Amino acid sequence: MIRLCTVSAIALAAGFSVSAAGAATLNVVCSNEQAWCDLMAQNFKIDTGIDVAMVRKSTGEVLAQIRAEAGNPKIDVWWGGTGDPHMIAAAEDLTEPSGVDTSELLGWARNMADMTDGKAIGVHVGLLGMIYNTEVVAEKKLDPPACWRDLAKPEYKGEIQVANPKSSGTAYTELATLVQLFGEDEGFKLLAEIGANINQYTKSGSAPGKAVARGETTIGIGFMHDMVNLKKQGFPVQIVAPCEGTGYETGAVSVIKGTPHLEEAKKWVEYVISADAQSAGLEVGVYNIPSNPGAKTDPDAPDMASVKLIDYDYKTYGSSETRTRLLERWDAEVKNAGGQIQE
Q1: Average pLDDT, the chain
Q2: Which of 317, 331, 342 is nearest to 192 (CA)?
Q3: Is 2 a residue whose pLDDT tops 50?
Q4: In the prediction, which pLDDT does 343 show?
Q5: Shortest CA distance to 26 belongs to which of 276, 270, 286?
Q6: Cα angle vertex 105, ends 280, 247, to 5°?
Q7: Alpha helices of the chain — where are they, by DSSP H?
Q8: What per-residue confidence (pLDDT) applies to 23?
Q9: Residue 189 CA, distance from chain mean position
Q10: I need a labelling partner for 113 at 20 to 30 A (CA). Which of 51, 78, 200, 293 fits?
Q11: What is the pLDDT of residues 148-186, one digit of tens each?
Q12: Which of 282, 272, 51, 313 is CA-nearest to residue 180?
């Protein structure tokens, strides 16, 4: 957290923070990488004078929290993470329209706003992929993976790491991607076969890539922009866009329904969709595709035009009914195929 505020017991009981001067503090839960969460809180304070109490949580955790707090929210804004849970929150009337103008944003960001009646706005795109450690692959004399189906090869037993789709939006995107690519039954069959090679299901979607970079596991599944950051840091890793095609996330920002700090929340939304704010992500190794066409990008960042992408069905896979059903099936058919669940 960038700033620590003095908080009274009365304010805590009411579910919001106050600064030492008595001004309201915006409570933001962030589902992006911690360094970006911290940088945005710091820059927002500098630019607007509004204090931010920032907490980082995975998308599944945030969705569970705002459901539990419906009618008495402790959060003002949810920023980042995959779009599916944001769409579910919108459909369940847990979030509200910010009223912020999205006309300057790229089409996919406006589409997110249109699908949710303005309750969720796209802030970035992340492409799903695989990463492997080149040194470990060579040491173990393994062929590097090129396709999703490669991950089911028996020689990869205990060599793969991915997040838990019940806590991670990244992993839910993987689940939904394979179902859309191969059909539901065949997709779950492949997920179970890959599951037999999983050594751990992590809580966070970016954790598998970091484990690959450190040589703690051979192969990871996650978003390519996180992998680019690792490669640019000098780790011996290679990034793979699966040969069959792959899915993607549209990260979003949402205002929690009933926030007592609506005006401050709107200012946050306006800020995080601005070109200057999105460009700042490069300072902390954020290489996803920004929603503001005026934002700066890195030449090594993933390119949507160069990757075979599926036509990701947000309407279906961003619905609460579909998500619940698929996660229940994952519990029944994939969870126990192999791999320790990180708590």
Answers
A1: 92
A2: 331
A3: no
A4: 59
A5: 270
A6: 85
A7: 9-14, 34-48, 59-68, 83-91, 107-115, 134-139, 169-182, 184-195, 207-213, 224-232, 262-272, 275-279, 314-317, 320-333
A8: 60
A9: 25
A10: 51
A11: 999 999 999 999 999 999 999 999 999 999 999 999 999
A12: 313
Name the residue with tokens 């800020």: 271
Tokens representing 165? 């789709």
Round to whole Å and give the CA distance between 41 and 39.
6
**Which one-letter DSSP state was computed for residue 246?**
B
> Residue 22 has what pLDDT?
46
Q: Are 121 and 253 in contact (CB under 8 A)?
A: yes
90 contacts: CB under 8 Å, gap ≥ 6: 116, 117, 119, 120, 254
Average of per-residue pLDDT across 306-310: 96
For 40, the token pair is 């945005």
Res 12 pLDDT > 80 = no
What CA–CA distances, in Å, run from 181 to 47, 256, 297?
A: 44, 33, 29
User: What is the value of pTM for the model shown?
Assistant: 0.87
**Distance, CA of 128 to CA of 222 (rounded, Å):** 6
Record the tokens describing residue 322, joined without a space.
């579909």
Rounded Cα gap, residues 307 and 207, in angstroms: 23
Distance of alpha carbon 76 from alpha carbon 259, whole angstroms? 5
| Six token digits for residue 203 | 């809580």
Beta-bridge partner residues of 220: 131, 161
Between CA 252 and CA 125 the distance in angstroms is 9
- With contact defined as beta carbons under 8 Å apart, do 53 and 5 qualify? yes
